[in-house]
Amino acid sequence: MNKIVLVIIAFFLPPLAVGLHKGLSGTFWLNLVLTFLFWLPGFIHALIVILK
Description:
Elements: H1 3-12, H2 14-22, H3 26-37, H4 39-51
Helix pairs in contact: 1-2, 1-4, 2-3, 2-4, 3-4
C-alpha cells in the first residue's frame, strides 16, 4: 500500500495501519496495546513501523 495513505490511516487508527502494513503479527498487538494506553504512543509506533 502507499505509505502516504498508511500514514493518514495511522493518524486516525494506528493499529489498522500497522495491521495493513505488517499483518496480524506481534507488531500489530503491541501497537494495539500502546494505542489503548494513550493514542500518541500508538501513533508514534505506527509511524516507525510504516516508515522503516
